[in-house]
Design a protein that fits this description.
The protein has 173 residues and is α+β, with helices and mostly antiparallel strands. It is built from four helices and eight strands, in the order E-E-E-E-H-H-H-E-E-E-H-E. This is DUF234 domain-containing protein.
């Protein structure tokens, strides 16, 4: 719930929760409760706003007309922002494919192993592990295999499934 202060018709200030802006993510085959949950902004416009427009540092740079420093900040943070947006796009693409029963990111409890996209087809007994990067040269398939093994160790019931490892980038759009 994103808490927002609003003025009521009687002129008083009240706190209202706006549930559409924030969501919870659990690792694939995890629960939406407990320590492993991650919160995120679900609305893409708010993601952009709170990354580039609203932070106090950026507002103060704009107020002081320090445009070069503001441009430098945006250029530095653009690759990270668009990389996460690309991950969200591939997750939505795989979720829309009816072949997959479960699609989502996965991470271990310690946060040491994280896979951008895991897709599971129980009917075909197939798993896809995918790493998403803007630049395909930065894909590390060997590291993805290690993370896939960690996933299988944590999810032993899927160990007999056929495994496929993919590197996804802007070229795969």
């Amino acid at each position: 719930m994103l808490d927002v202060l609003v003025r009521t018709p009687a002129g008083k200030v009240a706190r209202r929760g706006l549930p559409i802006f924030r969501g919870k993510r659990a690792p694939l085959s995890g629960r939406l409760s407990g320590k492993g949950v991650r919160y995120y902004l679900s609305d893409p416009f708010f993601k952009f706003w709170y990354r580039f427009v609203d932070p106090l540092d950026q507002r103060s740079l704009a107020a002081r007309a320090q445009w070069q420093r503001l441009q430098d900040y945006c250029r530095e943070n653009w690759p990270t922002y668009t990389g996460r947006t690309l991950e969200d796009w591939f997750l939505a693409r795989y979720r829309s494919d009816r072949q997959w029963d479960q699609v989502g990111p996965w991470w271990d409890r310690r946060g040491e192993s994280e896979i951008n996209l895991v897709a599971v087809s129980h009917a075909d007994k197939k798993l896809v592990f995918a790493e998403v990067k803007r630049n395909p040269e930065r894909l590390d398939m060997q590291a993805l295999h290690v993370k896939g093994e960690a996933f299988l160790k944590a999810n032993g019931a899927l160990a007999g499934y056929e495994q496929e490892y993919r590197g996804l980038s802007l070229e795969d759009l």
